[in-house]
């Protein structure tokens, strides 16, 4: 009976040594108790840089020439709409004011 327990004790020690060696070789985290660990989440690559690289750099905020050109385009479009009679109404003469006066 003593030989059987020694054999099982030796087997568990060998198994523990093998798992430790495997963890060292492959870079795994050894968790003999089986408790929950954040290691699975922490070993993933951070995605912030990848997400930031997806969006192009916003040059409209950086370059005043681009802002000036956009403003000039907006004003020219507004002027063209006014000439056709499609521009915005003067203050106080909109659709709501016309409904109220009826």
Attribute tags:
Small ribosomal subunit protein mS33, ribonucleoprotein, rod-shaped, Ribosomal_mS33, mitochondrion, ribosomal protein, mainly alpha
Describe this structure in words.
The protein has 102 residues and is mainly α. The chain is built from 6 helices and no strands. It has helices at residues 2-26, 39-42, 48-54, 59-62, 64-84, 95-101. The model has no long low-confidence stretch (mean pLDDT 84).
Question: Short description, anyone?
Answer:
The protein has 102 residues and is mainly α.
Q: What general form does the structure show? A: rod-shaped
Number of helices: 6
Helix content: 55-70%
- Determine the strand fraction and express it as a percent band: under 5%
Family: Belongs to the mitochondrion-specific ribosomal protein mS33 family.
Pfam families: MRP-S33
Signal peptide: 1-23
Subcellular location: Mitochondrion
Provide the fold topology.
Blueprint: H1 2-26, H2 39-42, H3 48-54, H4 59-62, H5 64-84, H6 95-101
Signal peptide: 1-23
Subcellular location: Mitochondrion
Main location: mitochondrion
